[in-house]
Amino acid sequence: MKISAFTFIKNGQILGYPFIQSIKSVLPIVDEFIVNIGPSDDETESLILGIKSKKIKIINSSWTHNMTDKGFVYGQQKMIAQYNCTGDWLFYVEGDEVYHEKDLEQIKDAFIRYHDNPRIEALAFNFIHFYGNSSTYINSPGWYRSEVRAIKSNIRSYAPDGLFWVVMNRNRKGRYPRAKLLPVSCYHYGWVRSEDQMNLKRMKVGHYWGNDNPGAISYLDMDQHILTRFSGKHPDVMSGWLVKTESIFQTNPTYKLSRKQRKHRLMIFIEKIFGVDLSKNHYKKI
Taking the model in full, what pTM does it have? Predict the structure, then answer.
């Protein structure tokens, strides 16, 4: 059995992605790591080469400038990397996602355990979305609490965007993959980078969402109600990238919630009353 990890990245350095830490976090359990690098204005490629691992294979690709529909270009770039994988399992690792060293053996064991099980097409992980600082994460049905990040290579799959897969077992209609949810967390650090880096990212990629002039955002404009203090331990690989903090991130107390955020508050209330999880899953749980 062979395990392929893969990702795509563009301007990872100037946009504040912990992409080096992301790659390093799973290297011990994979046989190859395919990295699809788009045209960049920084040292993204040289930094990846600096890891000096024979497992890493770099692809250089172009981004379709005319594709401006809901970030579909992310799905294109994801699939370019996926189609260059040679493993039995395909482990998708986004540039701001990191895995804890304590969970690696459990992930590898799952690859082995479910390799020959036809009912299990994919593996899903719980997500910890850090926000504002290293000691705060978001708990809301508006932020996916779990997602598929590994799928078998013999499954006819494609990505309509960078986030999830669709399985084409019928020529005319796709479906979400059948997945086993592991008791393992993916540590998502995209909202811990500086506001300047986040707004630069929005400016750089807004075009692919049909918006060439996205407005600036402030981390302060968030619902304090959904922020939770993180008391666990971050992956060791993040020690040189992450600024340590002790207190929960404080938002603007005068911020007025958006309509969507008010909806999420109502969903949280329903979750607490009925003991359900109303967050969206892009997979069928097995």
Answer: 0.96
